[in-house]
Design a protein that fits this description.
Blueprint: H1 2-15, H2 23-44, H3 46-53, H4 61-67, H5 69-91, H6 101-121, H7 134-145, H8 152-164, H9 169-183, H10 200-220, H11 226-236, H12 246-261, H13 263-266
Helix pairs in contact: 2-3, 2-4, 2-5, 5-8, 6-11, 6-12, 8-9, 9-10, 10-12
Length: 279
């Protein structure tokens, strides 16, 4: 009877497009192959890549492709294990917006305030400035909507649920943040990117901090991808000023407060989202 029940469970999960935990290994492998393959080619073969494909700048198609590495990996794995119907169900998570209004306030108001405060502390402006004004800033903000936020198909879409099957949300978030930071490492060796002037250890701390901070937001929305995508977008919108390094410390403090108040949920797998493809 136990064997029959086990087989029925496996058959049921296969029909709903269940993604096994081992897919996490393939997710990291595909992600690094895409992003590091492109970035590494420009780092180690600049005399070949630049003349043939052009400089790897923000508007370059290969830059978009490298940025989409985690998202592509996530979508590919969902297609492999869930097929087209599984992908449709997976994509429905982008429309899941219901969540405590306080999480929305943190994403829409709290993050910008952290950047502004960091900038003001070091004597910078309240808002970023651009030579061509708000029109240029608006266009770049729309373009950014199709860059970093699409990474969330991988980080929160696939990696977070798979990790939360085995470890508490706080450790899942920290591990994703560590991988997320290391994934960016080649960008620090590429000319023409903003990362070239940043401090990598501090950046890595920031990645781990942000990945932990977005974790309770992700679980509160029951695996919805909309809020994590808006969260990611807020990190790269050109309207907010450069508050480094102070914004990192401000967000680290905010994350510590959130973890403390949500400690029962953050240190327990009970109630954590563990399904990649919703039934």
């Amino acid at each position: 009877m136990a064997t029959l029940t086990h087989l029925e469970t496996r058959r049921s999960t296969s029909l709903t497009g269940w993604v096994p935990s081992r897919a996490l290994f393939y997710f990291v492998l595909i992600t690094l192959a895409i992003t590091w393959g492109i970035a590494g080619s420009y780092i180690f073969l600049p005399d070949l890549m630049a003349p043939v494909f052009g400089e790897l700048v923000g508007a370059h198609p290969l830059y978009f492709l490298a940025t989409w590495g985690p998202g592509i990996a996530g979508v590919v794995l969902v297609l492999i294990y869930g097929g087209k119907s599984g992908l449709r169900a997976f994509m429905s998570r982008v429309l899941w917006w219901r969540c405590d209004v306080r999480w929305w306030a943190l994403v829409l108001v709290g993050l910008p305030l952290a950047f502004m405060a960091g900038s003001l502390i070091k004597g910078g402006p309240l808002l970023a400035t651009m030579e061509n004004g708000m029109g240029e800033m608006f266009v770049i903000a729309i373009v950014m909507l199709f860059l970093g936020p699409l990474e969330e198909f991988g980080w929160r879409g696939v990696a977070q649920p798979l990790l939360q099957r085995h470890i508490a949300p706080i450790w899942a978030g920290a591990l994703i943040g560590l991988v997320w930071g290391i994934w960016h490492l080649p960008a620090f060796y590429l000319s023409g990117t903003v990362y070239g002037d940043w401090n990598f250890p501090l950046f890595l701390i920031g990645c781990v901090t942000l990945a932990i901070l977005v974790t309770p937001i992700f679980n509160a929305s029951r695996g919805g991808l909309l809020l994590p995508m808006v969260f990611h977008w807020q990190l790269i919108i050109p309207l907010w000023p450069d508050g480094q390094p102070w914004d990192t410390w401000i967000l680290l403090g905010a994350t510590a407060v959130v973890v403390w108040f949500k400690r029962d949920e953050m240190f327990s797998r009970e109630g954590a989202v563990t399904e990649v493809i919703p039934i």
